[in-house]
Design goal:
The protein has 147 residues and is mostly helical. The protein is built from five helices and no strands. The chain has two domains: 45 residues; 73 residues, F1F0 ATP synthase subunit C (F1FO ATP Synthase). The two termini are 30 Å apart.
Length: 147
């Protein structure tokens, strides 16, 4: 069984508990849930820091000398840092593109409601806003290639 399927019941129990907590005690429940969120965030940041600063595991037995030399060439966690940077690049550019499309799309629809013949020009502006996400994807591909 996949590990992620095992987390579904835990998520459902936590969500049900949060809903019941919010229904019963409205104001104190927000403080309790905020404290739980801060504790989970601190734990995940400690886990991330431990994963990024950990040394590579030593293989037992007859490891080829070329593989052992290649494993020690880069600093520990360098590949993981590049992958995290790629994820941040994609997430940031996608969020930026979402805001850009929201504003330009609503303005384009408002302009097209008055003058329907400007559909092509309005869609070009919305397409340019989508280009922001593509730039982030290109940066992520470059970063993954360097990892």
């Amino acid at each position: 069984m996949n590990l992620w399927f095992g987390t579904v019941p835990v998520f459902l129990i936590a969500a049900t508990g949060a809903i019941l907590l919010l229904r019963r005690w409205r104001k104190p429940a927000f403080k309790i849930l905020a404290a739980l969120n801060i504790a989970v965030m601190a734990g995940s940041l400690a886990l991330l820091a431990g994963a990024l600063t950990a040394a590579p595991a030593a293989a037992s037995g007859g490891v080829a000398p070329a593989l052992a030399a290649a494993a020690t060439d880069s600093p520990p966690g360098a590949g993981g840092s590049a992958l995290i940077a790629a994820a941040i690049a994609v997430a940031g550019s996608s969020i930026g593109a979402a805001f850009a499309v929201a504003y330009t799309g609503s303005a384009a629809l408002a302009a097209m409601s008055e003058r329907p013949e400007i559909f092509g020009r309005a869609m070009v502006v919305v397409g340019l806003a989508e280009g922001i996400a593509i730039y982030g994807l290109i940066i992520a591909i470059i970063l993954i290639g360097k990892a």
